[in-house]
Design goal:
single chain, alpha+beta, Rossmann fold, OB fold (Dihydrolipoamide Acetyltransferase, E2P), 6-stranded mixed β-sheet, globular
Amino acid sequence: MLTIEHLTLAYGDTVVVEDLALSAADGEVLCVLGPSGCGKSTLLRAVAGLEPPVTGTIHLDGRDLAGLRPDQRDVGLMFQEHALFPHRTVAENVAFGPRVHGLDRAAVRQRVTEALALVGLAGTEFRHVDELSGGERQRVALARAIAPRPRLLMLDEPLGSLDRALQTRLLEDLPRVLSELGTTVVYVTHDQDEALSLADRIAVMRAGRIEQQGTPAELWRGPRTAFVAGFLGLDPVFELQADATTVTTPWGRVPRAEVSDAGAGTGTVTAVLLPDALRLAPSHQPPADDELTVIATVVTRRFQGDHLRLGLHTDSGHRLQVAAWRGEVPDVGDTVRLAIEVTGLHLLADDPDR
């Protein structure tokens, strides 16, 4: 439905997006995930017609968007800073897009009513935007982007300016809103929790390029590079020795065929422990055949709501983290025994600096 090929974008002599290829299927929620400054927002602006490409093409439903004005593209963009009209009413803000598209008054009123109901703001039509809370303004901005019923809806860090509690509440509502909307969505964020919660597919962006893309489960269980693993919050990344048949860890040797492999070579390779690969093991319980045993010292304990997160130093000098869910939780300074599932050891592809 959306196809981007060989797209390069620049500000003057500074290249922001380089030879990028990306696509989104009809009705898909595609999250573009990456750090600040990697080119995510510039990418959205190019699709919306606000930034001219240096090279490349952007097609929507097979139609080349080159040369089309923003209002001719059937694309909606919710800006990170909202860009609402502060002294106008909620209804006047939401009605802006449908009016630009030439709808009559009755149709505009219907679009406003439907969009506000979808984002949970029914009955607020005559309130002024400067009287609203931050979360309400966020919903008005989303309603304004939805009201023209664009073929493609793009959201630029829509929750980025909110406090954590409000982010959590809106994150619970967004999947319902996007599902009921039924349009294709490109959602830009630097927050991996948002991407993992909302996306049908995630494209991880780095320095103007797509580093890896796939479903949330595919990325979570199979990051390709250390950058992707680290950005998804999969820690730690550490170095091991590997040959064609064996991987040597600080805690023992394992058959290479038993570990997960994203295409690492031989010699010194980088690896990450996948989710749930590491657990506290009772000292009296012998390790399973597919586990490695690690001895470590607890150095930190962090309260995480329904569990504690323990920071550990191993005898081999590595830093690890493990969740303690129930029962007796070790204190700082205690020595603990850990079990690593061999299948949760994931070798990463080479990740050269650009």
